[in-house]
Design goal:
With about 170 residues, the protein is an all-beta fold. The protein has no helices and 16 strands.
Length: about 170
């Protein structure tokens, strides 16, 4: 392959990258506490956002208007992509929130919550709707199925669990 563009992006290593669903913006997060939005394809930096500690994983809303970032500051932050406004700051219990997923219909956000749990948030209001509590160790990653009815989680307990989003019950352990 050929390098198309190099961005002088962050002052510390880059933790995650995520294209907006419409492909117009690339988000990057870093251990320098920042999250940046880059216009595609020219690479102009549109916004820089900050966590109070290292910034982690990223997830976009399906309509590309908002994105979420998690950080080592125990927060999940929801940002408006075009204005740069922080819309919500949601708090977990883990020393660091490791991952975040946005449901395909845009209604929910999920992230590991600490205490071996996964938290399900209503994206619009920031209300914590459910805590999924069947893992026996730290939860690292979460992902929604394409239809949004199942949430997958992976844990330090060496399992993958598939959850029914509507009921919060564990459907299967792999």
């Amino acid at each position: 392959g050929q390098i198309i563009k190099t961005y002088p992006a962050h002052r510390a290593w880059i933790r995650d990258l995520a294209f907006s669903p419409d492909g117009q913006i690339l988000a990057s997060s870093s251990h320098d506490f920042s999250v940046k939005l880059w216009a595609m394809p020219d690479g102009q930096c549109l916004h820089t956002f900050y966590h109070r500690d290292e910034a982690g994983r990223l997830a976009w809303s399906p309509d590309s208007t908002q994105f979420a970032s998690v950080g080592f500051d125990q927060t999940l932050r929801i940002w408006h992509a075009s204005t740069g406004q922080c819309l919500q700051v949601l708090r977990g219990k883990a020393p660091q929130l490791e991952s975040v997923a946005w449901s395909p219909d845009g209604q929910y956000l999920a992230c590991p919550g600490g205490d071996h749990t996964i938290l399900l948030w209503e994206a619009r209001t920031g209300e914590c709707l459910k805590a999924f509590t069947d893992h026996r160790d730290l939860v690292w990653y979460v992902a929604f199925s394409p239809d949004g009815q199942t949430l997958a989680s992976s844990s330090q307990d060496c399992t993958i669990k598939l959850w029914d989003v509507a009921t919060g019950r564990c459907r299967q352990t792999i």
